[in-house]
User: Fold this.
Amino acid sequence: MIIAVTPEVSLPGETRLVTALLDAGLDRLHIRKPGYTAGALCRYVDRLATRHRERLVLHTCHDIAAYLGIRRLHVPEARRLTMLPETMLPDSVYSTSVHSIEDFNSLEPSWSYALISPVFPSITKPGYGIGATVLGTLRRRQNRYVHMVALGGISVKGIALLKQEQVDGMALAGTLWQSAAPLTEWEKCRQAWNTVP
Assistant:
């Protein structure tokens, strides 16, 4: 599974870019726009083709997901820790975030997958993840109910290392949005993901 996480601050032509990624076969698009109101989020999603709604994941404004035709919801780690299981919507698919293999191993099967980070030093946040990545801990995985998706500093040159750790997927952010050619960068990452043993 290959996921793209939107930049927190919108880029010029962003919805055209994410539409092109989805048209090219991107598995999931995580819409992470913490500063967006519900109205702004609706306008963003309305710029994307309805045929892609099944692959969209909302990080915020979960209360408008049904209105938008989106059933995939992401719950950040801090919110998950205080969330009551009975508040999970029955027809929705949930993902979450973790920052250690211990937290990943303790997740309940109600989570479809978890973004585990940082696996490499961040591309977009200078200094974040240097000397404190989770990459070396992934082999201690015990939880087989929840899919493990690597996040943080992933570029084409690190994909071979990820595949050795037998993660179920990867999430791309900085490598796409810091690139002058995000579609080309995504294609390189997809090709590496699909061809590296």
